Amino acid sequence: MQSYSTASSSAAFGTNIESCKALGIDKKLINFGVSIGQIIFMPSGAIQFFIISLCTGQSFGTEITIVWIITSIITSTILAIATPPIPGGGLSCYTILFAQLGIPSAGIALVISIDLLMDAFLTACNLAFLQTELVLSAKKLNLLDEEKLRK
C-alpha cells in the first residue's frame, strides 16, 4: 500500500521485502529478486509509455505505421527499464520517446498531467507484478514455502 500512497517503489522497498517473506518466498530469492526487480521490472511502465505515445501521436496527427509501432514498443520497453524508481521518474522519458517517434513536443504538457495521475497506480501494479513473478520463480526453483503462501 505504501507504493500506492507515495508513488515510489524505493519508498516501498521494506514493505515489499516483508510482503515477499509473508508469501513464503525464500530469503535468498527475496534479497536478489526484490533489489533488482524494483529497478528493472517495470511492465506497466512500458505499457503506459506505449499507450500514451500511441494516443498522443494520433491526437497530434503523427503518421502511425507498423515501423512506428515497433519503434514505440522497443523504445517504451527500454525507457521503462531506464526510468528511475522515484515519483515522477518517467516524466523525463517522454521527451526521448516523443523525439524518437516524431510527436510534437506540445504533447508533453498533456502527458505530464496524465502521468502525475497514473504514477501511483502504476507503481503499485509494478510491485504487485514483481511479487507475483517472484512467487512463480520461487515455485520453479523450489524456494517457496507453499504452506506459508496458503495462509
Automatic annotation (TrEMBL):
Superkingdom of the organism of origin: Bacteria
InterPro entries: Na-dicarboxylate_symporter, Na:dicarbo_symporter_sf
SUPFAM superfamilies assigned to the protein according to its UniProt record, in alphabetical order: Proton glutamate symport protein (SSF118215)
One Pfam family it belongs to: SDF
Transmembrane segments: 29-52, 64-82, 94-114
Sorted UniProt keywords: Cell membrane, Membrane, Transmembrane, Transmembrane helix, Transport
Transmembrane in keyword set: yes
Main subcellular localisation: membrane
Subcellular location: Cell membrane
Membrane topology label: Multi-pass membrane protein
Gene3D superfamilies with a match to the protein in the record: Sodium:dicarboxylate symporter (1.10.3860.10)
Name used for this protein in its record: Cation:dicarboxylase symporter family transporter
